[in-house]
Design goal:
This protein has a domain of about 100 residues. It is built from two helices and 25 strands. The longest helix has 7 residues. This is Prolactin regulatory element-binding protein.
Length: about 350
Protein backbone atom coordinates (compact mmCIF):
# COMPACT_ATOMS: atom_id res chain seq x y z
CA UNK A 1 0.00 0.00 0.00
CA UNK A 2 1.15 3.54 -0.72
CA UNK A 3 1.68 6.06 1.98
CA UNK A 4 -1.53 7.80 3.03
CA UNK A 5 -1.67 11.39 1.86
CA UNK A 6 -1.68 13.88 4.72
CA UNK A 7 -4.58 16.38 4.62
CA UNK A 8 -3.47 19.75 3.29
CA UNK A 9 -3.48 22.54 5.86
CA UNK A 10 -2.75 25.51 3.64
CA UNK A 11 -1.55 26.18 0.10
CA UNK A 12 0.26 29.47 -0.44
CA UNK A 13 0.16 31.33 -3.76
CA UNK A 14 3.95 31.73 -3.62
CA UNK A 15 7.00 29.62 -2.66
CA UNK A 16 7.16 29.35 1.13
CA UNK A 17 10.46 30.11 2.85
CA UNK A 18 9.52 30.89 6.45
CA UNK A 19 6.85 29.83 8.97
CA UNK A 20 6.20 31.00 12.50
CA UNK A 21 3.49 29.99 14.99
CA UNK A 22 2.11 32.15 17.79
CA UNK A 23 0.54 29.56 20.15
CA UNK A 24 -1.07 32.16 22.41
CA UNK A 25 -3.02 33.72 19.54
CA UNK A 26 -3.37 30.57 17.45
CA UNK A 27 -1.71 32.28 14.49
CA UNK A 28 0.33 30.79 11.69
CA UNK A 29 2.49 33.30 9.83
CA UNK A 30 3.74 32.15 6.43
CA UNK A 31 6.06 34.14 4.19
CA UNK A 32 7.84 33.86 0.87
CA UNK A 33 7.49 34.87 -2.74
CA UNK A 34 9.10 34.99 -6.15
CA UNK A 35 11.57 37.77 -5.38
CA UNK A 36 12.37 40.68 -7.67
CA UNK A 37 12.12 38.65 -10.88
CA UNK A 38 9.10 39.60 -12.96
CA UNK A 39 7.57 36.13 -13.01
CA UNK A 40 4.11 37.13 -11.85
CA UNK A 41 4.64 35.39 -8.49
CA UNK A 42 3.85 37.78 -5.65
CA UNK A 43 5.82 38.34 -2.47
CA UNK A 44 3.92 38.37 0.78
CA UNK A 45 3.32 37.47 4.39
CA UNK A 46 0.11 35.59 5.19
CA UNK A 47 -1.52 35.51 8.62
CA UNK A 48 -3.73 32.47 9.26
CA UNK A 49 -5.99 31.49 12.16
CA UNK A 50 -5.34 27.97 13.44
CA UNK A 51 -8.16 25.95 15.00
CA UNK A 52 -8.84 22.36 16.02
CA UNK A 53 -12.03 21.23 14.27
CA UNK A 54 -13.22 17.66 14.88
CA UNK A 55 -9.75 16.67 16.00
CA UNK A 56 -8.03 18.11 12.94
CA UNK A 57 -5.98 21.25 12.56
CA UNK A 58 -7.59 23.85 10.30
CA UNK A 59 -6.15 27.12 8.94
CA UNK A 60 -8.13 30.05 7.57
CA UNK A 61 -6.55 33.11 5.98
CA UNK A 62 -6.99 36.26 8.07
CA UNK A 63 -4.82 38.73 6.23
CA UNK A 64 -2.33 38.96 3.37
CA UNK A 65 0.44 41.54 3.45
CA UNK A 66 2.21 42.48 0.21
CA UNK A 67 6.01 42.84 0.52
CA UNK A 68 6.30 44.30 -2.97
CA UNK A 69 9.54 43.25 -4.75
CA UNK A 70 11.14 41.36 -1.83
CA UNK A 71 10.53 37.79 -0.78
CA UNK A 72 10.79 37.08 2.94
CA UNK A 73 13.37 34.32 3.43
CA UNK A 74 13.47 34.11 7.25
CA UNK A 75 11.31 35.25 10.15
CA UNK A 76 11.46 35.83 13.89
CA UNK A 77 8.44 36.58 16.07
CA UNK A 78 8.28 38.62 19.29
CA UNK A 79 4.74 39.26 20.47
CA UNK A 80 3.12 41.21 17.66
CA UNK A 81 6.42 42.23 16.03
CA UNK A 82 7.92 40.35 13.10
CA UNK A 83 11.54 40.57 11.97
CA UNK A 84 11.58 39.60 8.29
CA UNK A 85 14.77 38.86 6.37
CA UNK A 86 14.37 40.23 2.85
CA UNK A 87 17.46 40.03 0.62
CA UNK A 88 20.23 41.87 2.50
CA UNK A 89 17.80 43.70 4.79
CA UNK A 90 15.78 43.15 7.94
CA UNK A 91 12.28 44.64 8.01
CA UNK A 92 10.43 45.10 11.30
CA UNK A 93 6.64 44.74 11.03
CA UNK A 94 3.99 45.26 13.70
CA UNK A 95 0.62 43.57 13.27
CA UNK A 96 -2.60 44.17 15.20
CA UNK A 97 -5.89 42.30 15.25
CA UNK A 98 -9.18 43.86 16.33
CA UNK A 99 -12.61 42.27 16.38
CA UNK A 100 -15.19 44.71 15.07
CA UNK A 101 -17.80 45.54 17.69
CA UNK A 102 -21.23 44.12 16.96
CA UNK A 103 -24.19 46.37 16.38
CA UNK A 104 -26.51 47.06 19.26
CA UNK A 105 -29.78 45.26 19.66
CA UNK A 106 -31.83 48.09 18.22
CA UNK A 107 -29.76 48.06 15.04
CA UNK A 108 -29.90 44.29 14.79
CA UNK A 109 -33.67 44.17 15.23
CA UNK A 110 -35.62 44.46 12.02
CA UNK A 111 -38.79 43.43 10.27
CA UNK A 112 -39.83 42.46 6.79
CA UNK A 113 -41.14 45.98 6.21
CA UNK A 114 -37.62 47.33 6.76
CA UNK A 115 -36.32 45.30 3.83
CA UNK A 116 -33.78 42.47 3.76
CA UNK A 117 -30.81 42.65 6.14
CA UNK A 118 -27.60 43.62 4.37
CA UNK A 119 -24.66 41.20 4.55
CA UNK A 120 -21.88 42.60 6.71
CA UNK A 121 -18.83 43.38 4.61
CA UNK A 122 -15.24 42.60 5.33
CA UNK A 123 -13.00 45.08 7.05
CA UNK A 124 -11.35 47.63 4.76
CA UNK A 125 -8.06 46.60 3.22
CA UNK A 126 -4.81 48.51 3.60
CA UNK A 127 -4.59 50.46 0.37
CA UNK A 128 -0.98 51.58 0.67
CA UNK A 129 0.68 48.18 0.98
CA UNK A 130 -1.61 46.13 -1.20
CA UNK A 131 -2.75 44.25 1.90
CA UNK A 132 -6.11 42.58 2.26
CA UNK A 133 -8.14 41.33 5.21
CA UNK A 134 -10.11 38.20 4.38
CA UNK A 135 -12.43 37.57 7.34
CA UNK A 136 -15.63 39.41 8.19
CA UNK A 137 -15.70 41.21 11.50
CA UNK A 138 -11.89 41.38 11.73
CA UNK A 139 -9.71 44.46 11.46
CA UNK A 140 -6.12 43.44 10.75
CA UNK A 141 -3.35 45.97 10.22
CA UNK A 142 0.35 45.58 9.44
CA UNK A 143 2.70 48.51 9.98
CA UNK A 144 6.26 48.86 8.67
CA UNK A 145 8.36 50.00 11.65
CA UNK A 146 12.01 50.06 10.59
CA UNK A 147 14.36 48.60 8.00
CA UNK A 148 18.12 48.16 8.00
CA UNK A 149 20.75 46.45 5.85
CA UNK A 150 22.20 43.51 7.76
CA UNK A 151 24.61 41.86 5.32
CA UNK A 152 27.41 43.37 3.24
CA UNK A 153 29.02 40.57 1.23
CA UNK A 154 29.48 40.66 -2.57
CA UNK A 155 26.19 38.78 -2.89
CA UNK A 156 24.50 39.98 0.32
CA UNK A 157 21.76 37.91 1.94
CA UNK A 158 20.42 37.78 5.49
CA UNK A 159 20.07 34.08 6.31
CA UNK A 160 18.85 34.10 9.90
CA UNK A 161 17.32 36.42 12.50
CA UNK A 162 16.56 35.81 16.18
CA UNK A 163 15.17 37.83 19.11
CA UNK A 164 16.67 37.63 22.59
CA UNK A 165 14.68 36.33 25.57
CA UNK A 166 13.02 39.66 26.46
CA UNK A 167 12.60 40.86 22.85
CA UNK A 168 14.70 44.00 23.37
CA UNK A 169 17.41 42.91 20.93
CA UNK A 170 17.63 40.90 17.75
CA UNK A 171 20.63 39.26 16.11
CA UNK A 172 21.16 38.73 12.39
CA UNK A 173 23.58 36.64 10.38
CA UNK A 174 24.22 36.20 6.69
CA UNK A 175 26.62 35.42 3.90
CA UNK A 176 29.38 37.77 5.09
CA UNK A 177 29.94 35.70 8.27
CA UNK A 178 29.25 38.63 10.62
CA UNK A 179 26.87 38.75 13.55
CA UNK A 180 25.10 42.04 14.08
CA UNK A 181 22.92 42.84 17.10
CA UNK A 182 20.22 45.52 16.95
CA UNK A 183 17.95 47.31 19.41
CA UNK A 184 14.21 46.72 19.05
CA UNK A 185 12.31 48.55 17.63
CA UNK A 186 14.76 51.27 16.52
CA UNK A 187 17.20 48.83 14.83
CA UNK A 188 20.12 50.79 16.21
CA UNK A 189 23.22 48.59 15.91
CA UNK A 190 24.82 47.78 19.25
CA UNK A 191 27.29 45.02 18.30
CA UNK A 192 29.08 43.66 15.23
CA UNK A 193 31.78 40.99 14.95
CA UNK A 194 33.12 38.36 12.57
CA UNK A 195 31.86 34.97 13.73
CA UNK A 196 32.65 32.63 10.81
CA UNK A 197 34.71 32.39 7.66
CA UNK A 198 31.94 32.05 5.13
CA UNK A 199 28.18 32.00 5.55
CA UNK A 200 26.37 31.84 8.87
CA UNK A 201 23.79 29.07 8.66
CA UNK A 202 21.95 29.53 11.97
CA UNK A 203 22.10 31.22 15.36
CA UNK A 204 20.39 30.90 18.74
CA UNK A 205 20.21 33.32 21.68
CA UNK A 206 20.03 31.88 25.19
CA UNK A 207 18.27 33.46 28.19
CA UNK A 208 21.65 34.24 29.80
CA UNK A 209 22.76 36.29 26.81
CA UNK A 210 24.98 33.65 25.27
CA UNK A 211 24.85 33.37 21.50
CA UNK A 212 25.46 30.16 19.52
CA UNK A 213 26.36 30.42 15.84
CA UNK A 214 26.93 27.73 13.20
CA UNK A 215 28.54 28.30 9.82
CA UNK A 216 29.84 26.83 6.61
CA UNK A 217 33.35 26.73 8.08
CA UNK A 218 32.25 23.55 9.96
CA UNK A 219 32.34 25.39 13.30
CA UNK A 220 29.75 25.94 16.02
CA UNK A 221 30.73 28.71 18.42
CA UNK A 222 29.42 30.05 21.73
CA UNK A 223 29.76 33.80 22.30
CA UNK A 224 29.24 36.24 25.16
CA UNK A 225 28.77 39.47 23.24
CA UNK A 226 31.74 39.42 20.84
CA UNK A 227 33.97 37.22 23.01
CA UNK A 228 34.37 33.54 22.10
CA UNK A 229 33.43 31.38 25.09
CA UNK A 230 33.94 27.94 23.56
CA UNK A 231 33.35 25.88 20.46
CA UNK A 232 31.26 22.75 20.20
CA UNK A 233 33.24 19.56 19.63
CA UNK A 234 31.01 16.97 18.02
CA UNK A 235 33.09 15.70 15.13
CA UNK A 236 36.00 14.80 17.40
CA UNK A 237 33.81 12.72 19.73
CA UNK A 238 30.99 11.78 17.38
CA UNK A 239 30.16 8.42 15.80
CA UNK A 240 31.64 9.32 12.39
CA UNK A 241 34.93 8.72 10.67
CA UNK A 242 37.34 11.62 10.37
CA UNK A 243 37.33 11.36 6.57
CA UNK A 244 33.60 12.27 6.50
CA UNK A 245 33.45 15.97 7.36
CA UNK A 246 30.20 17.24 8.85
CA UNK A 247 28.93 20.76 9.36
CA UNK A 248 26.37 22.15 11.78
CA UNK A 249 23.13 22.96 9.98
CA UNK A 250 20.87 24.24 12.79
CA UNK A 251 20.93 25.17 16.48
CA UNK A 252 18.13 25.86 18.99
CA UNK A 253 17.88 26.34 22.74
CA UNK A 254 15.10 24.57 24.62
CA UNK A 255 13.79 24.37 28.15
CA UNK A 256 14.20 21.23 30.23
CA UNK A 257 10.69 20.04 31.24
CA UNK A 258 10.11 20.15 35.01
CA UNK A 259 13.38 22.05 35.51
CA UNK A 260 12.66 25.81 35.46
CA UNK A 261 16.35 26.71 35.36
CA UNK A 262 17.35 23.89 33.04
CA UNK A 263 18.52 24.59 29.50
CA UNK A 264 19.46 22.39 26.56
CA UNK A 265 21.04 23.21 23.23
CA UNK A 266 20.09 21.09 20.23
CA UNK A 267 22.05 20.94 17.00
CA UNK A 268 21.77 19.13 13.67
CA UNK A 269 24.88 17.92 11.84
CA UNK A 270 24.78 17.08 8.13
CA UNK A 271 27.50 15.79 5.75
CA UNK A 272 29.42 18.73 4.36
CA UNK A 273 29.47 17.14 0.90
CA UNK A 274 26.91 14.88 -0.73
CA UNK A 275 28.27 11.41 -1.46
CA UNK A 276 26.95 8.67 -3.72
CA UNK A 277 26.11 6.69 -0.61
CA UNK A 278 25.23 9.52 1.79
CA UNK A 279 26.02 9.01 5.47
CA UNK A 280 23.30 9.83 8.02
CA UNK A 281 22.56 13.19 9.52
CA UNK A 282 22.74 13.50 13.32
CA UNK A 283 20.75 15.19 16.07
CA UNK A 284 22.63 16.14 19.26
CA UNK A 285 21.61 17.44 22.69
CA UNK A 286 24.10 19.56 24.65
CA UNK A 287 24.18 20.82 28.21
CA UNK A 288 23.10 24.47 28.03
CA UNK A 289 25.64 25.59 30.64
CA UNK A 290 28.80 23.57 29.93
CA UNK A 291 28.08 22.97 26.22
CA UNK A 292 29.23 19.38 26.53
CA UNK A 293 27.39 16.76 24.44
CA UNK A 294 24.78 14.71 26.31
CA UNK A 295 23.61 12.35 23.56
CA UNK A 296 23.54 12.09 19.81
CA UNK A 297 21.38 10.03 17.44
CA UNK A 298 21.29 9.48 13.68
CA UNK A 299 18.21 11.03 12.10
CA UNK A 300 18.09 9.54 8.62
CA UNK A 301 19.87 10.02 5.31
CA UNK A 302 17.69 12.84 4.00
CA UNK A 303 19.39 16.20 4.44
CA UNK A 304 17.90 18.13 7.37
CA UNK A 305 16.96 21.72 6.52
CA UNK A 306 15.34 23.00 9.73
CA UNK A 307 15.01 22.33 13.45
CA UNK A 308 12.26 23.44 15.84
CA UNK A 309 11.76 23.02 19.60
CA UNK A 310 8.32 23.01 21.20
CA UNK A 311 7.62 25.78 23.70
CA UNK A 312 7.63 23.31 26.61
CA UNK A 313 10.94 21.78 25.49
CA UNK A 314 9.31 18.34 25.24
CA UNK A 315 9.52 17.74 21.49
CA UNK A 316 11.81 18.49 18.57
CA UNK A 317 10.69 18.87 14.97
CA UNK A 318 12.95 18.22 11.99
CA UNK A 319 12.24 19.10 8.37
CA UNK A 320 14.13 17.79 5.35
CA UNK A 321 14.92 19.23 1.93
CA UNK A 322 12.52 16.70 0.38
CA UNK A 323 9.59 17.93 2.49
CA UNK A 324 9.29 15.18 5.10
CA UNK A 325 8.89 15.90 8.82
CA UNK A 326 9.99 13.96 11.89
CA UNK A 327 9.21 14.55 15.57
CA UNK A 328 11.53 13.47 18.38
CA UNK A 329 11.33 13.39 22.17
CA UNK A 330 13.79 16.03 23.32
CA UNK A 331 15.00 14.13 26.40
CA UNK A 332 15.85 10.84 24.72
CA UNK A 333 16.11 11.93 21.05
CA UNK A 334 13.75 9.06 20.26
CA UNK A 335 11.74 9.42 17.06
CA UNK A 336 7.98 9.34 17.62
CA UNK A 337 6.60 10.41 14.24
CA UNK A 338 7.79 10.46 10.64
CA UNK A 339 5.62 11.58 7.76
CA UNK A 340 6.13 12.67 4.20
CA UNK A 341 4.05 15.82 4.56
CA UNK A 342 4.79 19.47 4.91
CA UNK A 343 4.66 20.96 8.40
CA UNK A 344 1.03 20.59 9.56
CA UNK A 345 1.82 17.93 12.14
CA UNK A 346 4.66 20.03 13.58
CA UNK A 347 2.32 23.01 13.80
CA UNK A 348 -0.20 20.92 15.72
CA UNK A 349 2.58 19.84 18.07
CA UNK A 350 3.87 23.37 18.68
CA UNK A 351 0.38 24.68 19.43
Amino acid sequence: MGRRRTPELYRAPFPLYALRVDPSAGLLIAAGGGGAAKTGIKNGVHFLQLEQINGRLSASLLHSHDTETRATMNLALAGNILAAGQDAHCQLLRFQIHQQKGKNKAEKAGSKEQGPRQRKGAAPAEKKSGAETHQEGVEFSVENLQEVQTDFSHDPLQKVVCFNHDNTLLATGGTDGCIRVWKVPTLEKVLEFKAHEGEIEDLALGPDGKLVTVGWDLKASVWQKDQLVTQLHWQENGPTFSNTPYRYQACRFGQVPDQPAGLRLFTVQIPHKRLRQPPPCYLTAWDGSTFLPLRTRPCGHEVISCLSVSESGTFLGLGTVTGSVAIYIAFSLQEVLLCGCCCCCVLGLLL
